[in-house]
Specification:
The complex is a heterodimer of chains A (502) and B (492). Chain A is mostly helical. Chain A is built from 22 helices and four strands. In chain A, the strands form two sheets. Chain A has a two-stranded antiparallel sheet. Chain A has a two-stranded antiparallel ribbon with strand order 3-4. The longest helix of chain A has 33 residues. Chain B has two domains: 267 residues, no CATH class; 220 residues, no CATH class. Chain B is globular and about 70 Å long. Classes of the chains: A mainly alpha (502), B mainly alpha (492).
């Protein structure tokens, strides 16, 4: 049943592309209905999957001569991420309600991207997963290049090329794994059981991990992320940070670690204190967390702060993966969900609620606008989102980050220490952004008050309220009752670890 | 061999030549005073009917052998040759269709007749198993192509392109013949299989003459497929020739040449098969050199182009490089099917792309990147088709180009999974990431950047329908790659 989330999204994209150009309201409602249908399917699939392991959804021969199957399946991890995609898709449509230019094309690209994302999370065949993974690249380019803002063509091209380079590395890994395993099948489970030699896994694992890691914002290949996020229109940056970066992390987990588990084995020697690829990638993740946090602290553009915070939070996910223990991996998957929701919320507030009214994102300009008074909704929504993002108990971020740090401590204590420092600094950049953008000390001058009356901001619209409520409540629910997700994540991770990572 | 056998074996070529005569007779005889539009229509319809009849003839034509001996085959039937011939005829028909509505020539009869003769030459090349037959076929094809390139008589570019094409072509034909003469001198035979048999029994790998002959032949064929360093004619010819002719050169001529390379690869198979180390087989080494040079030069040069036709030409060079990789690591049927799959689907896509480029050029008077500004507003269907074609060429799934690439590279690795082929495949994949950049440069102008001129671009309905059908085929065949794969496998 979950598979219909894919089909309905692609069908929606097709219909939207064929709609007449001037009917923008129709395109909007169509996209909302399709996204809601996807969310309904995701919720239903999630509930139906409670207590079950991996469930095969569709299994058909696709290219029999090469052993490639159209194999869709879902386990706890997939179901959580499909749920996230459903939520992010609906929120993205709500925050795109004011798109007036080429609306039908916007939603066509948007829904095609969503369809590809659903497909990646549900594929259990490497080839099929790769197909969906690449389908997601092209719409991103056009969404940013056509409807974006600051340096959009540069940001879009950079993002497309980084993604494509990453997916080329994955394709090389796919061809290599397929050939070395005897060219029988590209099923993820088949490849994992094919007995790939350790020496082969030792070089193929880092290739595929970095290939997916580029999209997950792995330092130092993260530079596409801030520029891409800043250039993208609100809905696209919500999706980029919310679900597309998760595609990378999911690929690292499901494909790189699942198919090439021995790539994580010790090298047998140690170089500068690094004894395996696990140490290398954990180090990169830790550097990413600390580096992106520090950079976020120094930004003058509101959206860049959120962009770098995304890189930092994705570093947490990758660190969680590299702990290789139950609690760390649980935390990593939970963090994917949590960051998906919260990054979406933060980008929505900055990009839609604030920027579309103020037409500037520079702190220096925002400081003069006294937004706490003039846009109280935005200010309080950002307070809530920021608190959740910095890991305040009661929100999803807290549970996820706690688990990752505990897992990291169990694996290597110094990882946990640096990460802890990074998390504390995260409080600082959120605080700084909050103060500069909304709660400035300076009192408005008489002249400023006058011009405020002259240019009132547009009123907050219902889609914005609905979107903020949807994302905020999702985070709050998971924060207050994390078992709602962990009940499905934990068994899946346990099975993943027990089966030699498959 | 008697004349009845000869007639039956060459039935497809005969059908095409007869159709060419019919087209000429009808156009110059009955329709001399008719309107140009009607003459275009009549010539196109008769030409396509001829292709259809030839397609039927391909299915029933037997192989042509001397005295019924398999090793003395002149023209093969079925197998790779059969697939290539069917593909050639379909592509020829597709390149004739966009003639409707164009104005580059006032002599549609001659145009279609020469195109059909070129197609006949291509059919011979695709099936030839004998040095002399190969040469005759190649010359027939090439001479017709020179004429076609120059067919826009009022265009200086067209004439210039034809002269360049002709000079390079003549020189490369000389190289090819020189190589053939060495092979004949060494072995005393013109039949591919006899030559290879002789070389094997003599075990004379060290003989430098064979190496020289291979280099010469590679130079001649490298010209036909536009492989670096024999590619200099391609950008000029693609740029100067009328759009349907450029499509013809990029698709039909390429298919025929690659079919010939497959014949040579298959004949050489026992000798330079995948089990031997590559350093001992000069042919493999030469092909690797051509492949790597083409991938690098083609992709990097395409980055700098501002003319879309030249961009397509350089990307065609890069695609030839990928296919040469598949021929360098050749393992028999698996490889030959993969290369055929690639070249046929590539040909289909490029015909579509050239139809679009041709009409944009017709409407704007230029084929620079900026001529494509805002195409989505001026003709959405054309813009959407171009999106599909270029993304397919860049290898984005689920379009057919991705599957063709995957299939080809998997075939290379199944032939030889050593370090060298693997690194070459990795290089090819890395360069297809580069290629996305220049394809997006065009698509960016089509879809993203604002239009300078918002007047709709009119297009002849038949040409538009052809474009859309090709685009749909690229999508559908990409989603169900087994359709074409199974069709190809039926011939083996």
């Amino acid at each position: 049943m979950l598979a219909f989330a894919i089909y309905i999204s692609f069908a929606g994209a097709l219909v939207s592309a064929l709609l007449p150009r001037e009917k923008s309201a129709l395109a909007r409602w169509l996209a909302l209905v399709v996204a809601l249908a996807g969310l309904a399917i995701a919720i239903a699939g999630y509930v139906a999957g409670a207590g079950q392991g991996r469930v095969v959804l569709t299994d058909a021969a696709w290219i029999p001569s090469m052993g490639i199957r159209y194999l869709l399946a879902a386990d706890g991890i997939s179901r959580v991420l499909v749920l996230l995609t459903g939520i992010a898709a609906v929120a993205g449509v709500l925050f795109s309600w004011n798109i007036e230019v080429r609306t039908n094309q916007f939603f066509a690209f948007y829904l095609a991207l969503i369809g590809g994302v659903y497909g990646v999370f549900l594929s259990f065949d490497f080839f099929l997963l790769f197909v969906f993974y690449e389908i997601a690249i092209v719409p991103k380019y056009f969404l940013i290049a056509i409807w974006g803002s600051t340096r959009r063509e540069y940001g879009a091209m950079k993002l497309a090329l980084y993604s494509f380079v990453g997916s080329s590395m994955v394709l090389i890994g796919l061809l290599a794994a397929y050939t070395v395993s005897g060219s029988h099948s590209t099923g993820l489970v088949d490849l994992a059981h094919a007995g790939l030699p350790t020496s082969f896994q030792m070089w193929c694992f880092p290739l595929v991990f970095v290939g997916f890691g580029i999209l997950a914002g792995l330092w130092p290949f993260h530079t596409w992320a801030p520029t891409g996020h800043v250039a993208a229109p609100t809905a696209a940056s919500m999706l980029l940070a919310g679900v597309v970066m998760k595609l990378g992390a999911y690929g690292c987990l499901r494909v790189a670690m699942g198919v090439f588990p021995h790539g994580l084995d010790s090298w047998g020697f140690s170089l500068l204190g690094l004894g395996s690829w696990r140490d290398v990638f954990a180090l990169l993740a830790v550097i990413g967390i600390a580096y992106a946090t520090l950079v976020a602290l120094a930004q003058n553009d509101f959206k860049f702060v959120i962009g770098y915070s995304s890189v930092s939070h994705m570093g947490l996910v990758l660190l969680g993966l590299m702990t290789l223990n139950q609690i760390g991996l649980d935390g990593a998957v939970l963090q994917m969900f949590s960051h998906g929701v919260l990054a979406g919320l933060l980008f929505a507030i900055v990009g839609r609620v604030v920027y579309d009214r103020t037409h500037t994102r520079q702190f220096a300009d925002l400081e003069k606008m006294h937004l706490a008074r003039r846009l109280p909704f935005a200010a309080w929504a950002f307070v809530v989102a920021g608190a959740a993002s910095m890991g305040l108990p009661g929100f999803s971020g807290f549970v996820a980050e706690l688990q990752i740090v505990v897992g990291a401590w169990q694996a290597r204590p110094w990882w946990a220490i640096i990460t802890g420092v990074g998390l504390i600094l995260a409080v600082a950049y959120i605080w700084r952004a909050l103060q500069k953008a909304f709660f400035t000390d300076a009192l408005p001058t008489a002249h400023e008050l006058e011009s405020e009356h002259a240019h009132n901001f547009d009123a907050i619209t219902w889609p914005e309220v609905a979107g903020v409520a949807l994302l905020g409540l999702s985070s709050l629910t998971v924060g207050l009752y994390p078992r709602i997700l962990l009940d499905q994540i934990e068994p899946a991770i346990r099975a993943f670890l027990a089966g030699g990572l498959q | 061999m008697n004349y009845a056998d000869l007639f039956r074996a060459t039935l497809p070529e005969t059908v095409l030549e007869l159709t060419a005569l019919v087209v000429l007779a009808v156009d110059l005889g009955f329709l001399r005073k008719a309107a140009l539009r009607r003459r275009h229509l009549a010539a196109t319809v008769i030409g396509i009917a001829g292709c259809g009849a030839a397609l039927w003839a391909v299915a029933i034509a037997p192989a042509l052998t001397v005295g019924g001996q398999v090793q003395e085959t002149l023209l093969a039937a079925g197998g790779a040759a059969g697939v290539a011939q069917c593909g050639l005829l379909v592509l020829t028909a597709l390149t004739l269709l966009p003639l409707l509505g164009t104005k580059f020539t006032r002599n549609p009869g001659e145009y279609v007749a020469v195109a059909l003769m070129a197609a006949a030459g291509a059919l011979i090349v695709a099936a030839a198993q004998d040095l002399l037959v190969i040469f005759v076929g190649l010359e027939l094809l090439s001479l017709c192509l020179y004429v076609l390139t120059a067919f826009a008589k009022r265009s200086g570019n067209s004439a210039e392109a034809a002269v360049k094409y002709y000079l390079f072509g003549g020189m490369s034909a000389a190289f090819l013949l020189f190589g053939f003469s060495y092979l004949y001198g060494i072995t005393g035979s013109t039949s591919l299989s006899t030559i290879v048999q002789f070389l094997q029994t003599q075990n004379d790998l060290g003989v430098p003459l064979v190496g020289i002959a291979f280099v010469m032949i590679a130079a001649g064929l490298g010209f036909k497929v536009a492989a670096v360093p024999f590619h200099f004619w391609a950008p000029d010819a693609y740029e100067g020739a009328p759009a349907p002719v450029a499509a013809f050169i990029a698709s039909v001529s390429k298919v025929a040449s690659f079919a010939l390379l497959i014949s040579i690869g298959a004949a050489l198979l026992p000798r330079v098969g995948f089990s031997g180390t590559i350093l001992h087989s000069p042919w493999t080494l030469i092909l690797i050199f051509l492949a790597v040079a083409s991938m690098i030069v083609g992709n990097l040069a395409a980055l700098a182009q501002i003319s879309v036709r030249r961009l397509i030409a350089y990307s065609a060079i890069a695609h030839a490089g990928y296919m040469l990789l598949g021929l360098a690591f050749f393992s028999g049927d698996r490889s030959s099917q993969a290369v055929l799959y690639y070249i046929l689907t590539y040909g289909l896509t490029i015909v579509g792309a050239f139809i679009v480029v041709g009409w944009v050029e017709y409407a704007t008077g230029s084929d620079t990147l900026d001529a494509f500004l805002g195409l989505y507003k001026r003709n959405p269907l054309l813009a959407a088709s171009l999106l599909v074609f270029f993304l397919s060429l860049a290898g984005i799934p689920p379009l057919i180009g991705f599957w063709a690439k995957f299939n080809l590279f998997a075939a290379v690795l199944s032939a030889d999974a050593g370090v060298v082929p693997f690194s070459l495949v990795a290089l090819a994949i890395a360069f297809s990431a580069v290629s996305l950049y220049y394809y997006l440069q065009v698509l960016k102008r089509v879809w993203v950047m604002p239009a300078v001129d918002e007047h709709p671009i009119w297009m002849h309905p038949v040409a538009l329908a052809t474009t859309v059908v090709i685009a749909l085929a690229v999508i559908v065949l990409g989603c169900f790659p087994t359709l074409v794969q199974a069709w190809i496998a039926r011939f083996y």
